[in-house]
Amino acid sequence: MRPSFLARLVNGPLFDPVVFVRLLNRNTSLLFDCGRIGNLSNREILSIDSIFISHPHMDHFMGFDHVLRIILHRERPLNLYGPDGIADKVISKLNSYTWNLTGDYPLEVMIHEVRDHDILSRSARAGDAFRPSMPASSPRRGATIAMNPFYRVDASVLDHHMPCLGFVLKEPFHININAARIAELGYTRGPWIGELKGLIFAECMDDYIDVPTITGNRRIKVHELFMELVITSAGQKIGYFTDIRASGDNLKRIRELAGNMDILFIEAYYLAEREQQAHEKAHLTAREAGLIAGMVRARKVVPMHISPRYHDRIDEVMGELIAARISY
Ligand SMILES: [Zn+2]
Ligand SMILES: [Zn+2]
What we know:
Largest sheet: 8 strands, mixed
CATH topology of the largest domain: Metallo-beta-lactamase, Chain A
Order of helices and strands: EEEHEHHEHEEEEEEEHHEEHEEHEHHEH
Bound molecules: zinc ion
CATH class of the largest domain: Alpha Beta
Radius of gyration: 22 Å
Strand content: 25-35%
Number of strands: 18
Number of domains: 2
């Protein structure tokens, strides 16, 4: 199965946790946390539609200025999701610059504060010197905080001595195109396949698209192409959890949010030898990360945010995580 999401741990397991997710077939990407992002290209940053901030500690949030600098002339808005209080933090960053020459810039930053029962949204436009709008509240329907035909992001408010969001990115379902049938029917591969997937996700089954064939273009109904070419399967699921303590309440919330993960990105800040310290600082040990990976039945687990004190003991961190995951 060709994946729809291509996820990359931008700084590897040892430094600021940042996960960049490219949506294949679409020129868009998502970013989970935004600390150091020097390893992302300008092209990658320009493709970011939404940033999901777990919490505003510096190692998760300092890259926002960098993103803004790159996308300042962009027409597409930027969505930023974060925990309670994130809007004031973003607005403070925006207010720290002078915006007297951006009157004709189209960029709009939409900030969404995710709380247990509602989402408070504000927007700020470059053309208006990033003066923020008044907050508008919308009630939360279940765990979902962002949704469109191509993906959904669910979030839960966890505890890190402050609200800290855990995220799950889900594909509604996965569309597999039968390549052999394309050839049999005389169709020629091309961008129409991406268009077809988009229309299926958007449930526009009665629309028509132009399909290049060996005898010229044909206008074919989406539903007909769906029946001819498409096999659907369960969509991808990617989890992102960092800077949390292994408290009963956090574990309960993670269990409710996540299950059957294809990939789980999870912090493994300490070894179990410092479990007490981990609990006090509201971080996870590698053992706790492994137990959570077992709990959410993660097929692949990617540890991240490993404390600098263990940078020469990575094998131990990995070993502890894997052993705990198997033992769950
Ligand atoms: Zn951190
Ligand atoms: Zn933190």
